[in-house]
Amino acid sequence: MRTRTEPGRTSGTGSSSSASRPPARSSRHAFIAVSVARSRPRAERIGTGVYSTRLCRACPNLTCPADGGAASGAYTRRQMTADPSLPPAGSIAASSPRRRAVDAVRGLVMVIMALDHLRDFLGNAHFDATDLSQTTAPLFLTRWITHFCAPTFFLLAGTSAYLSIQSGRRTVRDAAQFLVVRGLVLVVLEQTALRCLGWYFHFDYHFMNAGVLYGLGWSMVLLGGLVFLPPAVSVAIGGAILLGEAGIAAADLGEGWLGTLLALATRSRDFEPVAGYHFFVSYPPIPWFGVMALGHGLAALVYRAGDPGEARSGVRTRRWLLGLAAAFLLLFAIVRGLDVGDPSPWSAQPSRLFTALSFVNVSKYPPSTPFLLLTLAGALLALFAFERRPRAGQIFEVYGRVPLVFYILHIPLIHLLAVIYSVAAFGAATWLTSGPVIFWDVALPGSPPDYGLGLAGIWTVWLVFVAALYPICRWYGARSRGR
Questions:
Q1: CB 370, CB 335: distance < 8 Å
Q2: What is the pLDDT of residues 82-109, one digit of tens each?
Q3: Which among 61, 152, 255, 293 is least surrounded, fewest beta carbons within 10 Å?
Q4: Other beta carbons within 10 Å of 240
Q5: In the listed set 54, 89, 124, which residue is the last one of a domain according to the structure?
Q6: End-to-end alpha-carbon separation of the chain, Å?
């Protein structure tokens, strides 16, 4: 049975009472506990509500919560170690609404991302879906909603880095090491196994693409150095990159190896380092690192400890999320209305609907300032919604807890589906197993004019595909938590 100490209870007489009562605390013990707590760096302290066995070792007889102060109802070190029902340090934060909301939003955009990749490999629209002179509203919106995926990935990667430190699951040094190693692994993974067995289905390195894992990986490496600094620095750097993206994209980078290196870090375009060998950068690291830095810095504002009552109900967190989303949307309306910060100006169209579509038709490669303001506002609103209604995101949490597994699985499976469809419908699939495949052209080079499924077919396949991946993600997530 779990027992609690009662520091304020008056002592009784009798041996039985004395035997059951915890040893009395001395002022020396209290001084030791408070000193130990204050000596630990702020970023390495265990979060509110998580009990620290490391702190209690300084004074075995002292009952104390993780912040170093004595509190009524605190657990003794022996009770903390012996009671199997008490979660270990970090696990409370890992299962809290804030972590659940992050997983749910991440899972939601993973599912939406699969819709875009299915349309890439199986769609019958042989033109840019956001080209207002050719597209339809449903096709435009099917492509446009997927714009929210990448910014949300990067934002939540920064947020998760902050929460892992705050919850006590990792020290700052551990988090930095994890970010650097994981980032490099993602870069290598994308250019090897995922490139050959996922995107291309061939080993001809005349064509390479620096996709979302490339951008995520290098951004994580950069964030590995930033986590040692105050979160305000992350906000400043991220905000400067976000608001200065137009200047970065237009800057004269010069010639030579330095200019090429800077272009690789800031521009979305095709590079040809050797004649005939193409390296197309879709996600340049610097603009996307700004989003990840913002996620890390803003998390300190959104998720820091506040009034105990507000912290328990999540009121403070939701206020911040809603306020930030409103601020981002307002900034978007201003800069887009003034037609600044985006290489694609909006214009009046034959209908009001298409005029509105033109207004939100912002540039992703590289991400413009209006693009990031709009999509990050959407990410913050989604976090707000799942913070307010955690149960609404339960299904998406399953995908969001294993994002890398979902990503690694869905690309080759979608590509394989396209090959099966092509062989069944046309007797061949060479356009899916050679050349640049879906890159460098809005249509699959070499594919028949009547190739692909209509929008209704794409949405149907998408629903079935995502449902089929659910039990796999659920099994792997449970297995990972078990380990």
A1: yes
A2: 333 333 333 334 455 568 999 999 999 9
A3: 255
A4: 13
A5: 89
A6: 27
- Of 399, 458, 347, 446, nearest to 156 by C-alpha is 399
- The arrangement of strands across the sheet holding 270-274 comes to 207-210, 277-281, 270-274
pTM (2 decimals)?
0.80
- C-alpha distance from residue 298 to each of 66, 223, 275, 466 (Å): 24, 14, 44, 31
**Element holding 301 (H helix, E strand):** helix 285-302
Amino acid identity, position 267: R
Tokens representing 106? 């991440």
Q: Is the dihedral of CA 372, 176, 399, 97 positive or negative?
A: negative
Q: What does DSSP assign to residue 453?
A: B
Tokens representing 105 are 């939003």
Average the pLDDT over 293-305 and give the result: 89
Q: 410-443 burial string, b = 16+ CB within 10 Å, else e?
A: bbbbbbeebbebbeeeeeebebbeebbbbbeeeb
Which of 89, 122, 152 is where one domain is finished?
89
Contact yes or no for 65/45 (Cβ under 8 A): no
Among residues 303, 40, 64, the alpha carbon closest in space to that of 171 is found at 40
Task: Tell me, yes or no, whether 44 and 126 share the same domain.
Answer: no
Minimal CA–CA distance to 461: which of 152, 124, 150, 151? 124
pLDDT of residue 97: 56
Residue 259 falls within a domain, yes or no?
yes
